[in-house]
Amino acid sequence: VLQRDDREQEGVALIREALAANREVSAVVRNYRKDGALFWNQLFIAPVPDAEGIITHHIGVINDVTDLMRYQEQLEYQANYDSLTRLPNRNLLRDRLQHALIVAQRQHKGVAVVFMDLDGFKNVNDSLGHSVGDRLLGVVAERLARCTRTSDTVARHGGDEFVVVMTDTVDEQSLIAWMERVRASISEPVWLDGTELYVGCSLGASLFPQDGDDAETLMKKADLAMYRAKDMGRNTFQFYQPEMNASAGARLNLERRLRRALRDNQFLLHYQPQVDIHTGRIVGTEALVRWRDPEVGLVPPSSFIPVAEESGLIGPLSEWVLREACRQNKAWQDLGLPPARVSVNLSARVFQQRDIAKLVMQVLDETGLEPRYLELELTESAIMRNAEEAVSMLNELSALGIGLAIDDFGTGYSSLSYLKRFPVDRLKIDRSFVSDIGISGDDETITSAIIALAHSLKLQVIAEGVETSAQLDFLKERACDEMQGFYFAKPLSTDAISELMKGGTAHEPAMA
Ligand code: C2E
Ligand code: CA
Ligand code: CA
C-alpha cells in the first residue's frame, strides 16, 4: 500500500524471495506518505514457527530511516561535489576522467583535459573580501559550464582552479576555438555589489592519447601547460609540450614542496648578530629564513624566496617569519638575555599589501614584544618602486614604534627628496660596496658618501657583509655605527646565537 507505483524495488524483491523461502529478511524500501512525500523504511521480517515447525505468522519491525538515508546522500554529495559552485570536485573529476579514458580506449577516441586558473583572483579576494571572491567563483563556474556540453565534466579543482574533461570532438583545432571562447567569456566583466570586476584566465590542455594514457599524467601535463600560459603573460592558453616538463615542472614541484613545508613547519630561522662598531656589543640580530627540506637538508633563501614570491606563498611565509622572530626575541628577553632588536626582511610583494601594519601590530600584541625591539628591513628598490605610496605605508609602520631600515642601500636609485620624507631609522650599506673596500676606490667613495649622507639625515648606518679587519677599520674610521658580517659571526642557529648573546659582546680579539 505504501509503495504506490514504486514497486520495482530491490528491497521489495528481497522480501518476496525471503517470504517464499521462509527466511528472515532485512531490507530497505521506499515508501510514500499520503501527501506523496518519500520516506525510507528499514524492514525486518522473521517467520515464527509453531511447535511442529509450521510457520503460523510473521513478526515485522519497521524503522523510519529517512534521516539516515538523507545523511548518506549528503555525505556522498559532499565527497563528490564542491559546495560553493555545485560542480564535481577533484574526487569525482578523477573518477570521471578515468571512466572517460576507459571508454575512449575502447572506442579509439580522444579525450582532452583542460586546466583553467583565474588571473587576478587573489587581488579580488584580498581587496574585496572572501564573500565577493566566492560569488565570483560561482559566476565563473556558471560561465564555464555554459561553454561546455552536458557530456563533458566541469570540475572545481580547488581554489580558483577548474578542470574540464572533454570527450568526442577533441581535435586541436576545435579545442583552440573552445579555449578562445572560454577565455572571452571569463574575461567579460562581472557585476557584484555594484562593482565591475575583471578577471582573466589562463588555460592549459593535454590530450589523450598523445600526451599520456592515465589520468594522473594527463592532469599533470595540463597543469604544466597552464603554468606556461601564465608565464607567457596570462589570459592565454597553451597545449602541453614535452619541453615544459623540465623547467615549469621543476618550478611547480618546488612550489608544491614549499606549500607542504609551510604546512609541516619545515622553516626555521637563523640569526646573524648586528654589532655596535665602537663597543662591540650585540645590538640586534637579523632573522634569516632557512628551509629544512627532508630530502635535501638546509636550503638557503635564495633558492626558494623567488618562487615563494611568484606563487604568493611569500605572504604566509613572511607572516610566519615575523611571528617566529618576535616570539623568539621575547623569549630571549624573558630568559634575561640583554635586550636587542630583531630585524625581519620584508619582501616587496608583502610590503605592497596594505594591511602589513595591521599584521605587525597583531603579531606584537600576540607575542608581547615591545615595538622598539622589532625592525623591518625593506630593500631600497622595493620602496622606490612606488615611493609616494611607500611614504604613507612607512608612516603607518613607524607610528607603531618599530624600527625601519633600508636594506641593500646604494644599489637602487634613491631619490634624495624621498629619502628625507621616509620615516626610516637606518640605512644598510649593501654588501657589494663593503666587499670592495681595499679593492675599488670608487666603492670606498660610495661607502663614505652613504655614511655621511645618512648622518646628515640623522639616520644610523649599518654595513653588511663585513668579512675582514681591513673593512672594519675603514668603517670605524668613517664613523659607521653598526656592522654585520662573517668577520663577527655567520648566521647562527637559535641555540648558538643565544650562547653568543649571553656574552652580549663580541669575543673576537679584533673587537676588543
Ligand atoms: P640580505 O637581507 O641582504 O641578508 C644578508 C645575507 O648576506 C644573508 O644571506 C647572510 O648570510 C649573508 N651574509 C651575511 N654576512 C655576510 C658576509 O660577511 N659575507 C657574505 N658574503 N655574505 C654575508 P642569506 O641568509 O642567504 O639571505 C639571502 C637573502 O635572502 C637576504 O639578503 C634576504 O634578501 C633574503 N631573505 C632571507 N630571509 C628572508 C626572509 O625571512 N624574508 C624575506 N623576504 N627575505 C629573506
Ligand atoms: Ca636584510
Ligand atoms: Ca642586504
List the helices and strands and how they pair.
Elements: H1 10-20, E1 25-32, E2 38-49, E3 55-64, H2 66-80, H3 90-107, E4 111-119, H4 121-128, H5 130-147, E5 153-158, E6 161-167, H6 172-187, E7 190-192, E8 195-197, E9 200-208, H7 215-231, E10 237-239, H8 244-263, E11 267-276, E12 282-293, E13 297-299, H9 305-311, H10 314-334, E14 341-346, H11 348-352, H12 356-367, E15 374-379, H13 380-385, H14 387-399, E16 403-409, H15 416-421, E17 426-429, H16 431-435, H17 441-456, E18 460-464, H18 469-477, E19 482-484, H19 494-503
Parallel strand pairs: 9-10, 12-14, 14-15, 15-16, 16-17, 17-18, 18-19
Antiparallel strand pairs: 1-2, 2-3, 4-6, 4-9, 5-6, 7-8, 11-12, 11-19, 12-13
Helix pairs in contact: 4-5, 5-6, 7-8, 10-12
The chain binds ligand C2E and calcium ion (2 copies).
Residues 286, 345, 377, 407 line the site of one calcium ion.
What binds here, in terms of ligands, is: ligand C2E, calcium ion
Tell me the fraction of residues in β-strands, as a range.
Answer: 15-25%
CATH class of the largest domain: Alpha Beta
Q: CATH superfamily of the largest domain, called what? A: EAL domain
Helix content: 40-55%
Overall geometric form:
elongated
Structural class estimated from helices and strands: alpha/beta
Overall mean pLDDT stands at 89
How many domains? The number is: 3
Unreliable spans: 508-512
Spatial arrangement of strands, main beta sheet: 11-12-14-15-16-17-18-19
By CATH, the architecture of the largest domain is named Alpha-Beta Barrel
What gyration radius follows from the Cα positions, in whole Å? 33 Å
The number of strands is 19
Largest sheet: 8 strands, mixed, barrel
Determine the CATH topology of the largest domain: TIM Barrel
